[in-house]
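request received
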Amino acid sequence: MDLGLIISSAVKIIGFVFLMLMPMIAYIIWVERRFLAIIQDRIGPNRVGIPWTNVGLFGLGQPIADGLKSFLKEDFTPGHVNKFYYVIAPALVMVPALLTCAVLPFGRDLVLPFLDEPIRLVIADLDIGPIWIFAIASLGVYGIVLAGWASNSKYPFLGGVRATSQMISYEISLGLSIIPVLLLFQHLNLNDIVRYQSEHGWLLLPMWGDGWSVQRWLYLIPAGVAFIIFVVSMFAETNRTPFDLPECETELVAGYHTEYGSMKFAMFFMGEYAAMIIGSGLAVTLFLGGWSLPFGLDALVLGVFSDTWFSWVPALLSTGIFFLKIVCFMLFFIWVRGTLPRFRYDQLMKLGWIIFFEAALANIFIAAGILMFA
Amino acid sequence: MPLPLFILFSALTLGFAVAVIANRNPVTAALCLVVSFVGLAALFIGLSAFFIGIVQILVYAGAVMVLFLFIIMLMDIEEEERKHFDRLRTAGGIAVGIGVAFLIGGVLWDFDYGKASLDDVPVQFEAAITLREADADSGIVRSANATAALREGRLKDVALVGEKLFNDYNLHLQMIAVLILIATIGVVTLGKKDSPAPDSGSSGGDKASES
Amino acid sequence: MLNQYIPVLMHLLVVVGFATMTLLMSVWFGRRSTSKQDIKDTAYECGMIPIGENQPRFSVKFYIVAMLFVLFDIEVVFLYPWAVVFRDFLSADQILIFWSILGFVGILFVAYLYALKKRALNWVG
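response:
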């Protein structure tokens, strides 16, 4: 039994982190560059295809070439830095970012014909889902502030200090924003939350099951506000435009990673994109039904593939749906980056501490009131 | 939790806790504190207290960040590294530490579970379910989800903490709020000079020494 | 219990191993420059020679915000158990839970208003 657990966990970890998350990070960077290029009426990277041929494949080789380039660059450590912390800082950004995905359910329970028990498509089925993600992600601040401090240089230092205040401020509104979600679902287990939404309507689309109730439709108000606060706070947490003040090039060159090069720089990059993908995954899971299909189509799919030999199809399909939703969310991230200018630091703090804090608190009591009286 | 894991995480917690005070470099000391807290969280999680363990990380990660900012803002790290130990103070500190260790040991020895090994005290799910069903009519609210989870052999400790908190400790919760209110007033008073006009003291650099 | 704990540990090990490998591979495969140039060892300041302290003093506001974060984070932490059991209490007609949390958040909102009034969260000027 123990061995089965270890093998299935290992397969899930390798499958989710290295076969799904990592390629997604690589290709979302390419998508971002192409999409931004479209927004800005440029062409974007379109040349790197199959080596030694003229086949361009729309530049699909670009991420591989970029990765290879990062590895082959000189691994340079400047003389003025604090060596130990300078080297471990990129790892301290990447490790928490990849660790958070442990609780994200990426598909319906996988039923295999030759196994007695279905396999839950989540690496660790913890009963504290979102808090786990927040807590581990909050450890990522240390990587950024250490990078800024250990670089022993002005721009990184300022970037690191900015990052601390920004990331911890928005952690509060992030934490407060999901309270209405928990009020409704009464669960912190993300898999249970998704299963509930699959049967009773997504939080933001209660249009099947018993989602057609007055209470659920009234609940769209706090849920919508919570969604907006959650998504904007997530932008701030991951240092994305319009909140990319720790690394804004017009003021701080490259912010906390100014003194970094080669793969160490790429690790900051990967950590940031991993955090974005997992943040999108959490938003999708909490508000948009995670791996489930809308309008109760899940039951239909389960019915069609009820045959023993095709019982694995719904799980695979749900995984595809989950990642499709994430990709749509990431396109939204990129769209925002191509559209909005950067905030000023005082505006950023005002938004987090005054507008969002008060709105999220009021939102909680509106949600509680709806549950009490409707 | 399995004994090897317990030993591993206890060693991690204690080892890094010692490193916090033994280290000359304050930045290293602060980071050792983080690792020590993460080890402690792992111990909590090992005892099925997932919520407490994760809150440990969530709150203390922020708290140590405060310490960290304090260090890089106010301390001269090279000077700290050059400082010499004061023999008398070190000896006094060790004596106090040993005293506290005896105190905690004594308390644990008096406490039934203090003497039990970890394998002896698994979570007693059946007993918990019977207990919950027994006081169904007594006005104590029980979380249906938590009961269902207990039947499956899982401990939903967030719901259990919530039950306890809002059944028995409503007043104490308000006390905590007052405590945090006082702490907030302390933070604001210590960290901030009353500046009536926005133009005076635009840069905070010189105010740093006051906190 | 164990089937929740082991995967987390395995995940941690895999991820830490991956990060370490990435750092090491960068050292192994990366090219070395043949000439030693002192200019590469200076801090980057857009091509100018660095002047002054490399770690300038920063505003105490960052510090105040960090401290306030810890306090309000405790508030958020108490809201999680409340949110999870709220509907159970409602179905048992125990409305006290609502007033209890309203009092808790209300007192903390006073703390928030105090910080706001004292301009602790004000970043302009």
